[in-house]
Amino acid sequence: MHDALPQAMLARLFREARTHNAIGGDVEDDTLRALYDLVKFGPTEANSCPARFVFVRSPEAKARLAPALSDGNRDKTLAAPVTVIVGHDLAFYDKLPVLFPHTDARSWFAGSDEARLERVGLRGSSMQAAYLILAARALGLDCGPMSGFDNAMVDEAFFKGTAIRSNILVNLGHGDPAQLFPRSPRLPFDEAARIE
């Protein structure tokens, strides 16, 4: 695992990949399972894996999601074959005896204030959302991640009675390149990074 990926793969994952606003096509259940089976291997704090994923596909589920979407995101999300709600479980520590079995990692978090659990859960689920985007691209899917939605409404519709809170939405499918905006600039190394 010390060789760099071929340039074509790096282009697919990063350089040529785009955030799509118009996504159609079909995404099979087997693809969604394969997607999760890649995402689950990405690192998180103490292997806590706090993200929880809801793959919204059915008309009934889309109807529950629709009222929570901002005006600019509603039509494109309802048209996408699948929208993933990436949430984070504030009770993620209950899985640590299985996920981090070589020590009592559960005790590190159990009884913590909600702000700390939210911070760890949100950070980890954000990392897992990024893994989801890269894994989807690796499987030949296009993505449209967004935060333009009412979290409280999504939580009420999909996570009521649980310790799970929504973080981000990601539309999945096959994007229409004709509907892409020109790529926005990125900061050069010297403006965003330094080596010390």
From TrEMBL:
Domain Nitroreductase, chain residue ranges per copy: 27-158
Keyword Flavoprotein appears in the UniProt entry: yes
EC top class named in words: oxidoreductase
Family (UniProt): Belongs to the nitroreductase family. HadB/RutE subfamily.
Assigned EC number: 1.-.-.-
Alphabetical keyword list: Flavoprotein, FMN, NAD, NADP, Oxidoreductase
PANTHER family: MALONIC SEMIALDEHYDE REDUCTASE RUTE-RELATED (PTHR43543)
Record InterPro entries: Nitroreductase, Nitroreductase-like, Nitroreductase_HadB/RutE, RutE-like
Cofactor section: FMN
Name of protein: Putative NADH dehydrogenase/NAD(P)H nitroreductase FPZ22_09125
Organism: Luteimonas granuli
Pfam family, one: Nitroreductase
GO molecular function terms noted in the UniProt entry: oxidoreductase activity
Keyword Ribonucleoprotein attributed: no
